[in-house]
C-alpha cells in the first residue's frame, strides 16, 4: 500500500527531528588513562561504543606516575578537565570519602554487580556504594623462563623464598648474551618501585607505621629488605634499572631479556600472547617470593574507572563505564583480541568461561593470588592501616613517592641504603607530625 505526500513529509520530519535530537545529546568524553596493555586494548575497541552510542572520546594516555599526578590535581581542584579517570584501589576510597567521585550503583541490573569479586567491589566502595568500577585487578607473582631453568639444571620451588630468587638470579645472569638474572621495578613512585619494595618489606617482617602511627622506615626489617632489593637488582638486573617501571620490564621480559620477573599477575596475558611475547611458550610462574613471613608478599591492586564529581557529562560517562567493564566487554576482547588478552581479576564469569581457561594457563593461579591477598592483614605485626603495598591515607601518595625516589637513588648508585632510609624516616616523621597523626 502506498503513502501520501503528506504522510511522507511527516515521516521525514520525524526522522529529521530524531537526528537533531541525537546530535544534540551526543557528548565528547575526555578520558585520562594509563598506558598499560589492557587500557590500550580498551582504546582500540572504543570506536565500537562510539558508533553505537553516538558519543565520541578524547583520549589522554599518560605514563602511570604522570596520570596519578594530573588526575589528582584535577580531582582535588574540581578542574573538570576529565570526565572519566583511571584510578586505583588506593585513590578510590579516599577520593570517594571526599565527595570527589560520582557513585556508580545505578548501572542497571544487567551490569551484574554480584559477578564482581567481593574484595574488588568492596575495595572500590565507600559506605557500601561503588565509586569506581574495576577494569582489571591483580596481585603479583614470579614469572620465570623454563628453558633457562632447565638448561641450568634449576627447579623453581612451589613457594620460592627471596633467598632462592637471589641464587637463581646469580646463576642465570648472562649479560654478555643479553640475559639478565632478574628484572624488577626500579622507577621511582609509590605505585612503581614501592609497589614491589612495599611487599618486600612486608615479607621481611616490616611495616610503614606502628599502631601509634610512628614511622618505621629505619628499622632492621626495612634495611634488610631494601639491602636485598639493591643487591639483587644492581648485581643481576639490567643496566639503567632505576628507570624501569612496569611497562619497561614487561617489554624486557617479553623480548627474552630477563630470566625472572616479579610483577603484576595482570601482565600474564601479554607474556603468554605470542603476538606480543617471544617467550610465550617458555614462561611459567610461581607465587611471589617470601622471607620471614608470607604475609603481604603478593600485592593487591585494581585499576578502575571513575567519574569525577566535576564532570558535566555524567550520563554519557556512565554509559561508557557500563560498556567497558561489563561481561559483554570481556567477551568482545576475547573474540577480537584473543582470550588470553581479556582484562583479568574482576569477575567470576571470566573464570567460569571455558574459552578463557583454555587460553590462559595462569587463570586459576591468578584468581587465587588475588583472592588470597588481604589488605586488612598484610603485615607480621599489627598496624593501624589497610593496604598491602600502600597505606590508605591521603598523605601516602606524596610520602610513598618521596621514599621511592630515595630508594631509586640507591639503585642508581647515588645513595647508600642507610642514607636513603634515614632520609625517608625523617620525611615520614615530619609528614605525620604535620598531618596530626603524631606529636
What do you see in this structure?
The N terminus is likely disordered. The strands form three sheets. The protein has a five-stranded mixed beta sheet with strand order 2-1-3-10-6. A three-stranded antiparallel beta sheet has the order 8-7-9. A two-stranded antiparallel sheet has the order 4-5. Strand 4 and strand 5 form a beta hairpin. It has 17 helices and ten strands. It has 439 residues and is an alpha+beta fold. Helix 7 packs parallel to helix 9 and helix 8 crosses helix 9. The protein has two domains: 171 residues, 3-Layer(aba) Sandwich (D-Maltodextrin-Binding Protein, domain 2), CATH 3.40.190.10; 221 residues, D-Maltodextrin-Binding Protein, domain 2, CATH 3.40.190.10. The radius of gyration is 24 Å and the shape is globular.
Structure in a nutshell:
This protein is of the alpha+beta class and 439 residues long. The chain has helices spanning 5-25, 37-53, 64-76, 91-97, 118-123, 146-151, 162-172, 193-203, 220-236, 246-254, 268-271, 314-324, 327-337, 354-359, 363-372, 396-411, 417-434; strands at 28-34, 56-62, 84-88, 125-126, 129-130, 133-138, 140-145, 260-264, 283-287, 301-306. The protein has 17 helices and ten strands.
Tally of discrete structural domains:
2
Cα-based radius of gyration, to the nearest Å: 24 Å
CATH superfamily of the largest domain: Periplasmic binding protein-like II
| Low-confidence runs of at least 5 consecutive residues | 1-5, 7-24
- Alpha-carbon distance between the termini? 88 Å
Q: Class by helix and strand content? A: alpha+beta
Amino acid at each position: 500500500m502506498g503513502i501520501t505526500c503528506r504522510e511522507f513529509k511527516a515521516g521525514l520530519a520525524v526522522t529529521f527531528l530524531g537526528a537533531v535530537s541525537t546530535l544534540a545529546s551526543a557528548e565528547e568524553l575526555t578520558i585520562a588513562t594509563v598506558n598499560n596493555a589492557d587500557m590500550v586494548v580498551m582504546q582500540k575497541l572504543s570506536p565500537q561504543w562510539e558508533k553505537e552510542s553516538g558519543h565520541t572520546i578524547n583520549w589522554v594516555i599518560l605514563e602511570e606516575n604522570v596520570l596519578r599526578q594530573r588526575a589528582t590535581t584535577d580531582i582535588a581542584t574540581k578542574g573538570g578537565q576529565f570526565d572519566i579517570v583511571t584510578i586505583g584501589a588506593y585513590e578510590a576510597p579516599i577520593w570517594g570519602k571526599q565527595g570527589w567521585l560520582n557513585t556508580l550503583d545505578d548501572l542497571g541490573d544487567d551490569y551484574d554487580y554480584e559477578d564482581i569479586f567481593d574484595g574488588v567491589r568492596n575495595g572500590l566502595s565507600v559506605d557500601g556504594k561503588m565509586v569506581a568500577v574495576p577494569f582489571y585487578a591483580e596481585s603479583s607473582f614470579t614469572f620465570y623462563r623454563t628453558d633457562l631453568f632447565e638448561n641450568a639444571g634449576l627447579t623453581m620451588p612451589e613457594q620460592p623464598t627471596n633467598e632462592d630468587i637471589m641464587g637463581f638470579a646469580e646463576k642465570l645472569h648472562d649479560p654478555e648474551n643479553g640475559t639478565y638474572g632478574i628484572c624488577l621495578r626500579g622507577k621511582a613512585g609509590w605505585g612503581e618501585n614501592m609497589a614491589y619494595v612495599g611487599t618486600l618489606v612486608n615479607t621481611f617482617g616490616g611495616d610503614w607505621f606502628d599502631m601509634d602511627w610512628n614511622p618505621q622506615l629505619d628499622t632492621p626489617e626495612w634495611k634488610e629488605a631494601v639491602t636485598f632489593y639493591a643487591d639483587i637488582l644492581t648485581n643481576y638486573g639490567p643496566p639503567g634499572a632505576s628507570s624501569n617501571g612496569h611497562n619497561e620490564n614487561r617489554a624486557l621480559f617479553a623480548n627474552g631479556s630477563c630470566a625472572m620477573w616479579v610483577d603484576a599477575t595482570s601482565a600474564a596475558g601479554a607474556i603468554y600472547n605470542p603476538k606480543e611475547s617471544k617467550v610465550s611458550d617458555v614462561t611459567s610462574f610461581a607465587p611471589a617470593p617470601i622471607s620471614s613471613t608470607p604475609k603481604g608478599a603478593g600485592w593487591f591492586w585494581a585499576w578502575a574507572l571513575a567519574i569525577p564529581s566535576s564532570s558535566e557529562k555524567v550520563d554519557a560517562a556512565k554509559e561508557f563505564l557500563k560498556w567497558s567493564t561489563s561481561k559483554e566487554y570481556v567477551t568482545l576482547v576475547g573474540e577480537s583480541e584473543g582470550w588470553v588478552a581479556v582484562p583479568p581479576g574482576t569477575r567470576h564469569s571470566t573464570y567460569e568461561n571455558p574459552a578463557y581457561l583454555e587460553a590462559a594457563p595462569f587463570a586459576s593461579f591468578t584468581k587465587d593470588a588475588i583472592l588470597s591477598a588481604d589488605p586488612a592483614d598484610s603485615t607480621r605485626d599489627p598496624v593501624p592501616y589497610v593496604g598491602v603495598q600502600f597505606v590508605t591515607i591521603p598523605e601516602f601518595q606524596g610520602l610513598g613517592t618521596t621514599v621511592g625516589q630515595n630508594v631509586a637513588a640507591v639503585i642508581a648508585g647515588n645513595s647508600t641504603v642507610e642514607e636513603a632510609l634515614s632520609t625517608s624516616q625523617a620525611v615520614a616523621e615530619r609528614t605525620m607530625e604535620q598531618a596530626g597523626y603524631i606529636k
